[in-house]
Automatic annotation (TrEMBL):
Superkingdom of source: Bacteria
Protein name stated in the entry: Release factor glutamine methyltransferase
EC number(s) reported in the record: 2.1.1.297
InterPro entries, sorted: RsmC/RlmG, SAM-dependent_MTases_sf, Small_mtfrase_dom
GO biological process, one term: methylation
Location of the Methyltransferase small domain: 53-191
Family annotation (CDD domains): AdoMet_MTases
A Pfam family of this chain: MTS
Entry keyword annotation includes S-adenosyl-L-methionine: yes
Native source organism of the sequence: Rhodoferax ferrireducens
Class in the EC hierarchy, top level: transferase
Key words, A-Z: Methyltransferase, S-adenosyl-L-methionine, Transferase
Length: 231
């Protein structure tokens, strides 16, 4: 793991396991979470809106009418902020049925049913052939075995999700399209950058947010674009 000594790894493990327990402890009828001035509902086993997505939400730009795919949508936060920016079409995808339930509720609650739809999908499986102007992604940061669907929001067994994301994402971008991607200092930042560059993308940092005063948990947002070679 990049930028983390062994004690830090253990502390991050404890914190993430605590978060997973928290996500599972939500009442059956859901819990309201305040996030960047808006409210979102989460049902049990859904990843809550948190500091991790803030550097993306605060710094990404959607042009009016653009189409957006949000990968690992969770409660739908990033996708719904895309709607508020004026996106013409938004699709949120997630493998977790609880996240799908939460995101669908939030789409309706924020009044974007005509703009946004939520699809249960393991990455791009259920959106074959669809292309977008913008792809946003908040997928698990750490190469660590995920024992259940809740852990999969934080841990990426053998880094399969990240590796497959970059292998396939170009197939779902319109010409001139771009990616907004989140990662963290306790994840595999260098590895992600290598995967992106190997897939033909430039990588530019656009924002960071710190979740704690000691800065053991720092989240980064990146803008990625296809590198066009001049001949």
């Amino acid at each position: 793991m990049e930028n983390a000594s062994m004690p830090d790894v253990l502390r991050i493990d404890r914190w993430q396991k605590g978060r997973q327990k928290l996500f599972k402890s939500v009442p059956v009828d859901g819990k309201m979470i305040k996030y960047l001035g808006k409210e979102f509902k989460v049902y049990p086993n859904t990843f809550w809106p948190f500091t991790d997505s803030k550097p993306l939400v605060k710094n990404f730009h959607i042009q009016h009418g653009e189409s957006v795919l949000d990968v690992g949508t969770g409660s739908g936060v990033i996708a719904i902020f895309s709607c508020y920016q004026g996106a013409g079409k938004v699709v949120g995808i997630d493998i977790n049925p609880a996240a799908i339930k939460s995101a669908k509720h939030n789409v309706k609650m924020h009044g974007f049913e005509k703009v946004m739809k939520v699809v249960k999908s393991n990455l791009f499986d259920n959106i074959a052939g669809q292309k977008f102007d913008v792809i946003t992604a908040n997928i698990p940061f750490r190469d660590k075995f995920a024992h259940d669907i809740v852990a999969r929001a934080q841990w990426d067994t053998d880094f399969q999700t990240n590796t497959r994301f970059f292998a396939e994402v170009g197939n779902h971008l319109n010409p001139g399209g771009r990616i907004y991607f989140i990662h963290s200092n306790f994840g595999e930042t260098d590895r992600v950058k290598k995967l992106a560059k190997a897939a033909g993308f430039s990588v530019k940092a656009i924002g960071r947010e710190v979740a704690d005063k000691s800065e053991t948990k720092v989240f980064h947002a990146f803008l990625m674009k296809i590198i066009v070679e001049n001949h």
